[in-house]
Each structure stands twice: as C-alpha cells, then as structure tokens.
Write a structure and sequence with these properties.
globular, seven-stranded mixed β-sheet, Rossmann fold, Quinone Oxidoreductase, Chain A, domain 1, alpha/beta
Amino acid sequence: MKAAVLHQYDESLTREEFVRYEDVDDPKIVRPTDVIVRIGGAGVCRTDLHVVEGIWRFKVDVALPYIMGHENAGWVEEVGRGVESVKVGDPVICHPLVTSGHCLACRRGDDMHATDSRFPGINANGGYAQYLLTGERSLIQLPKSLAPKDVAPYTDAGLTAYRAAKKASRHLLPGQFAVVIGAGGLGHIGIQVLNALCAAEIIVVDRSDVALQLAKDCGAHHTVKGDGHEVERVLELTGGNGAEAVIDFVGEGDAIAKGLAMTRNAGFYYIVGYGGKIELPTIDMITSEKTIVGNLVGTYPELVELMALADRGLVHLSTREYRLSEANQALKDLHHGQVKGRAVLIP
C-alpha cells in the first residue's frame, strides 16, 4: 500500500520533507479482534508536528520509520475471526486508542488510561496510509449522513474538544461565561459543543482574524483579538471578574498565564493544548480556589455522543482536503497557520 512515512525527526521543522510517500507492506490481521480499515480520511493534527519534532519519542516507545495519523475513518476492509459487531464494507470512525477491554480502566470506560493499549499514529502505525490496523472495540459505525473524509478529525480534535467542553458545560449556567482560547482545529469544535450543551455566553480569543471569523460562524457570542490586551477585554466583558470556565486549546507561550488570569475565582481552567508550563504560586491557588483540569482525548461513549451531535447537524467540521501524496504540504500548511479548521488526507 501507499503511505506517508516518517523516517527521521526534525526538531526545527525546517526540512523540505517531513514524511516520505512510498510503498509499504499492507497491515495483517493478527488477533481475532483485529480489523483492517480502508482509510477514507486521516486528520492532520498539531500533535503530528510535535511527533515530527521528536517530542513524543520521550513519551512513547516507537521506532522509526513509522506511519503517523491518529484521526481516522473509513470502511471495514477485513476482520478477524472473532469480530461480530462490524462487517466488510461498513463505514466506521476509529476511536484513537486500541484497547483489550480487560483492564480496570477499560471496564470503567476510561479508554485513555488503559494499561493494555496501543495508539495508532503515536506508538504504532497510523492512518497516513491506504489501510489501518485497528481493533473491533475501537470502531463506531457511521450513520448515512456522515462520510469518513468529513468526520475523521473528530476522533482526536473533535473528541478532545468535546471532552473539555462537556466537562465545562456541567457547571456553566445561563448568565455565566466560557472563554475559548484558540479557534483553530479544536477550538472551532469546542465552541459548537458548548453551544449545544449549555447556555453560557462564549468569548473566543485568537490572534488570527480568520480564526475569529470562524469562531463567529461557529456561534461565538464575543470575539477578542489576541493582541496583548486580551485579558483586559475579557475582564471587561465578564464584569471585571473573569469567566467561570476557560478552555485553553493553545497551552503554550503566554496563553497559559493569560488563561488563568481570565479565570474568575473558584472558576475552572481546562488545559487542552500543550507545549508550555503551568507556573502558579501555591498561595494564589489557595486564595483564588481555581481548579486546573487536564484533558486527554476522550472515551468511546464520548465519541458516540459527538457523532450524535454531528448527525443532528449541531456540530460541523471545517476541513481542507489534501491527497495522501500531499502529506508534506498539509503538515507545512498547518505549521504555518494556513489551515482553516482541520486538514484531512485522502488516499
């Protein structure tokens, strides 16, 4: 099969070629619950750029060369002898983790913390290819209204945004405020999820005018340009106290300090983006009683819930399509901020 393969890390992201488009062996069924999916769409994520940079080599055990791509959807191509819930030809979206289902975390539905798992595109071959090896337990059948190429990024970008927005929606009340920092690939989904799940006023902060327009299109009630004065503007919009919930989809640079400054006392700061550090004096944590919440992808049931919202037309993905052979261009466009929403590779 054809695949876009990562052969070496590039810490500066300056090489002309991040991945190599080439022929590789087709994946093979090994376990009775294995499923091979013919890829209809593979999302291109900022995490993929972090993989290219080599950041993830200190977190996971993976040997180069390997195939990135952890946001995948397509059609069932082949199934193991023990597979019963899907059949060849079924359109499916893949939960990003492949788990056995036997550990306690799995039995509690905490897929992200399973002790027996693999993460295609992170620590195993992923979906920047014509075919993907996954597991039956990871697959959700798609309704007729949703095509694989249009929903692939929901498996990480959408699911992560949904999980954070769902947590926030549980305590947000009418008349309260939610701030979304970053209206890109994840943020534009988070805005729509907040609108679908709660009645809080949504303030979106971004440096890009294109992203702010996308935020308005997705239902943001207020937009604030990230020009160095965003904290003051958010405080003004919230009556001087800050927001009850801040969801930070950036998580690096000065976004963290500003996000915490936008969070009112006893409020919640949800960190989704990564690359930076949270540095806060303990006395400030005590006197403000702010809660800092980490977010790691999401559960299988949460992906089912997100597909239900998409099926009803309550959440839409803004995507830009590239051929699989154009993987380098997609990665470079993402790196240089030239992708509105999410990039999707199509074999």
